[in-house]
User: Fold this.
Amino acid sequence: MAALQDLLPGFQTVGGDLYSHGMVSMHGGNLSVRQDTNLCITRSGSRLGYLDQSDLIQTGINKDDPNTKLASSELAVHRAIYRKTPFAAVVHCHPIHAVVLSFLRDKIVPSDEAGKLFIPVVPVIGFGIEPVPGGFPQEIAEVLNSYPVVIVHGHGSFARGMTLAEAYAITELLEISCRILYLLKK
Assistant:
């Protein structure tokens, strides 16, 4: 299992990029990486743009421990993703244009070339249902077996990858594609 100080730079880079690009508010979003039967996830209420080592919480994928209560409110979703998929990293954030489109559509179909190539369809989970933190964990995990990213209606996106950088790249592409759709009024 990687030490927290070894994981911190990757969390800081992705958290900083999410914050500087407006995809999370001061205390919104969360990041995690798989570590065998454990995961490392951002602390509840952490500021992704300014993470330090105390913001990284190691806990079990399949069982609670004393650190569990410190983890993000989306822990159940991250756990479900690691239980049901082979992926090693998850980025959850609130990209503005993607969230706006999730109020209007039950799936996002990008019009731009990169979007068509890498995320040709992005399902919207819970369309028309009021979102709650940690909601739809099984549905999100199931969708992420077939799609690199999913949006929870009115809430935000979950992207998976083998690294945080990979999951971030998919998240950024989602927001760019959604911004293009929004500006095109498509």
